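Human: Respectfully, please carefully check these tokens:
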Amino acid sequence: MKKEFNLTEITTPMLLTLLKDEIISPECFLKECKSSLQSFQSTIDKKFPPDLINFISMPLWVYINLKNKLGNEKAFEIMRVVLLTGGVAMQSILFDSINKPRTFENFIEQELQINKTGTTKWNNLEIISKDKNKFEIKITKCLYHELTTSLGIPEATKLICQVDNAVFNSYLPEEVIFHRNGLNQRIADGCNECHFVWECKKCKERN
């Protein structure tokens, strides 16, 4: 990205809106989360990269505090809406479609670049196949899941990877279909790896 994207400009207003009927003074709640964030970060295992901690610790800390206030189910659903909205915005910007035409080739190029420098740079990626009709990869190491598991909230990984379907199936919705070779094919589901498959139906028709 040429310009730094501030995710909180989207997630904070949405969180405040969703919390206004759930807790007294959502603004105070968020201020308390922010003021205690550094203390929370100090409890995180130092094996995790500092930039990963800085990127994801605030949403995770908010989620933990919401679980204590509202229970697991409601806290999860609130953060699901918030992170889905913010995550789709961030990932859409990373694909840089304003400056690069939406093509299957450009999508593949940007997805691989995001894995090197963007929001998935902390994960290990292996390319299984890459041609003009199909692109398939697998993630063999997910630091997001390792971090959430170390904090006792492994389910929070699903809050992060939920963005995949929304972003990948909206890049070229009339042409490219994203799937995972079936259900429960993620590290967050207990698998050893995450599967990502993009098939360009229009490409096959043109060929």
Observations:
- The chain has one domain: 8-206.
- The chain has a mean pLDDT of 93.
